[in-house]
Automatic annotation (TrEMBL):
Residues 90-265, 272-445 form the Macro domain. Residues 459-641 form the PARP catalytic domain. This is Poly [ADP-ribose] polymerase. CHCR repeats lie at residues 1-90. It comes from the Eukaryota. The keyword NAD applies. Keywords: Glycosyltransferase, NAD, Nucleus, Transferase. GO terms for molecular function: NAD+ poly-ADP-ribosyltransferase activity; transcription corepressor activity. The keyword Chloroplast does not apply. Its main location: nucleus. Pfam families: Clathrin, Macro, PARP. GO terms for cellular component: cytoplasm; nucleus. PROSITE patterns: CHCR, MACRO, PARP_CATALYTIC.
């Protein structure tokens, strides 16, 4: 931008306006800054660069009254929706990842972070004020009420609102200290408290600013080392996606954080890549956590309705691609798909598909089906064989993740199989959307949609043949199978029963096959065995129905709803005993079941289905709640008194 120094003979505002019209916002800011047009410079920071923190910092630096200068611009911008997050570019690149993509450092604005939590130092007047401005009255009022009630509270937790993209805001006070050891300890405590609260609330992603590196003028090296080190230590036992968000013009701070993350990053051979793949006919579907613009495929796909995604892709591609997009859009405003050159990206072509979200489930499903069909037809017409798609609609559009993911994967599987396409299809999910990633993995690896080839399963060697198609076989008390079950039951039920009447093996072949298919999916997706032997108590009539029809959702909530409205199992037989009822002969019955708990989380009575990204809920002690018919198999029925 050396040419700025040669503008004395020209009208600087006109040149700045030309820069703005060409989306060269940093250059426009530099021009206004050079020619001391402070108000216009502030306006560029707010309207175009959309960084309130920089605006406040710049205003103070040039001696402009902050309230009069910036607040007026902010109010104007908010009135015109200039700070609308949908039009902002989230900071996806450049980034640096540590093990399991847990830690990243990125350039951007904390307000725009689509994480579960953003952390704000309430002692930083610039950051605090910009967050409250962006969050509106809801955030300011909630904070004020809580701090009035508890002036010395170590943390104030507020639900996000207004222009803030995260779900929650954690406000924490912090004070600098000239003693470096005390300062380091205070930083560690600050970061630890925020992470511990996020872990306690089951959040999966959190974003921190570079605290102390602005107005406090603290050592960048000390701050970055303390913050990164504390995060790294916490993540060893509690996996989470953590972002350090650095202002775009603070390269020295970014570099220092990058250096410390690199120092803690394990060798490439030990990095666990967040990627899975499944074979579909001649083609392959992959799921990856990463950046859509980095994909080395023939074509990457974006949605023209997503301002965030569109700008990320076009900015990364460069001016030629932007010009091509503008020309195509002007020439064919009603086109369902716009194809443009890839510019600086490693792909060959970029497709922007016209798509709009909808609250109506049927309309949403149809629109996603049409979107995939449009992509497939155009990939074929271009003779491409590889394509990368983002998790469309799962960000600010806030569409149902369950519907979006299931529909996109199902439709793509259908095209690969029916058209016999030898393609590589990649679904690329942002690092801070682990629940979306898990859902894509679940849908890609499932065999229940009928697209995968049939697998031959072997029945247990203990099963007996029956010409009458019996499903219940009473075990002999002399066999090891009986003795093991009876011994474990006796140990668990001391003092709660007098005798075991019989133990029956359940041989429902259809149900068993469904359970095995589910088991295969779980092991492939989670890369581990999560099967447990658990008890389920119920009345005799319910047991007879379960043996024929499995633990279907009609039993959801029958044994309680405290940890979710599903089917309850327990490793504690005395707990399950509480849900049995004696029949006319005083006999009770309890199942010993094989249960796939999968990825589990603590439940509550509001959960009517499994939380996205999880397979079951739990009390974190002995209770597990399932939400899928084939997730459990009643292997034995114990009848006792």
């Amino acid at each position: 931008m050396d040419y700025i120094n040669r503008l004395e003979n020209y009208d600087a505002p006109d040149i700045a306006n030309i820069a703005i019209s060409n989306q060269l916002f940093e250059e426009a800011f530099s021009i206004y800054k050079e020619f001391e047009v402070a108000t216009s410079a502030i306006q560029v920071l707010i309207d175009h660069i959309k960084n309130l923190d920089r605006a406040y910092e710049f205003a103070e630096g040039v001696g402009v009254d902050v309230d009069a200068g910036v607040d007026e611009c902010v109010e104007s911008a908010i009135d015109m929706d200039a700070l609308h997050v949908e039009d902002e570019i989230p900071p996806l690149t450049p980034d640096v990842r540590s093990q399991r993509s847990s830690i990243i450092v990125c350039h951007g604005d904390l307000i725009a972070q689509e994480t579960d939590v953003i952390v704000v130092c309430s002692s930083s007047k610039y950051l605090f004020k910009s967050i409250c401005q962006a969050g509106g009255d809801s955030v300011s009022t909630s904070y004020s009420q809580q701090i009035s009630a508890s002036p010395n509270a170590p943390i104030i937790i507020v639900e996000s609102a207004g222009k803030i993209a995260s779900k929650m805001i954690y406000f924490l006070p912090w004070e600098i200290n000239p003693d470096q050891s005390i300062l380091c300890k205070s930083i560690e405590d600050f970061v630890s408290l925020a992470l511990e609260k996020a872990i306690e609330h089951k959040y999966r992603s959190i974003a921190f600013p570079a605290m102390g590196c602005g107005g406090f003028k603290c050592s960048i090296q000390l701050i970055s080392r303390s913050m990164v080190g504390t995060v790294y230590s916490k993540l060893k036992t509690n996996p989470m996606s953590v972002s350090f968000v650095i202002q775009p013009d603070k390269k020295d701070i970014y570099d220092e954080f990058k250096k410390h993350i690199d120092e803690l990053q394990p060798p490439p051979s030990s990095i666990i890549l967040k990627a899975i793949a499944a074979k579909l006919g001649k083609g392959t579907i992959e799921v990856e956590m990463g950046d859509i613009t980095k994909q080395k495929v023939d074509v990457i796909v974006g949605s023209s309705s997503s301002g965030i995604l569109r700008e990320i892709i076009i900015n990364a591609a460069g001016k030629e691609s932007r010009m091509s997009y503008d020309i195509e859009l002007k020439s064919h405003p009603n086109s369902v798909l716009i194809a443009i050159p890839s510019g600086s990206l490693p792909c060959k072509r970029i497709f922007f598909v016209k798509w709009e979200p909808n609250d109506n489930e049927e309309i949403l499903q149809q629109s996603l089906s049409d979107l995939i069909s449009t992509v497939v037809q155009n990939v074929i017409s271009h003779n491409f064989t590889s394509v990368a798609l983002p998790a469309i609609g799962c960000g600010k559009h806030a569409c149902s993740v369950d519907i979006v993911v299931k529909m996109m994967v199902h439709e793509m599987k259908k095209h690969l199989i029916q058209r016999k396409l030898s393609w590589t299809v990649k679904f690329v999910v942002n690092d801070n959307q682990e629940n979306v990633y898990d859902e894509f993995c679940k849908q890609v690896l499932t065999t229940e949609d009928g697209f995968h080839e049939a697998t031959t399963y072997q029945l247990p060697v203990t099963w007996e043949k029956s010409a009458e198609h019996k499903t219940r076989f009473t075990l002999s008390t002399k066999v090891h199978e009986y003795q093991t079950i009876a011994s474990n039951f006796d140990s668990a039920m001391k003092g709660k029963y007098t005798e075991v009447i019989k133990i029956e093996r359940i041989q429902n072949e259809r149900w068993y096959m469904q359970y095995l298919a589910h088991t295969k999916d779980f092991r492939k997706r989670l890369n581990m065995d999560t099967e447990k032997r658990l008890y389920h108590g119920c009345p005799e009539q319910a047991a007879n129905t379960i043996i024929e029809d499995c633990f279907n959702r009609s039993y959801a909530g029958v044994n309680g709803t405290a940890y979710g409205v599903g089917v309850y199992f327990s490793s504690d037989a005395t707990y399950s005993h509480g849900y049995t009822k004696p029949n006319a002969n005083g006999e009770r019955c309890m199942f010993l079941s094989r249960v796939l708990v999968g990825k589990t989380t603590k439940g509550n009575n509001k959960m009517k289905t499994r939380p996205l990204g999880f397979d079951s809920t739990t009390d974190e002690k002995h209770i597990f709640v399932t939400y899928h018919d084939a997730q459990a198999f009643a292997e034995y029925l114990i009848t006792y008194k």
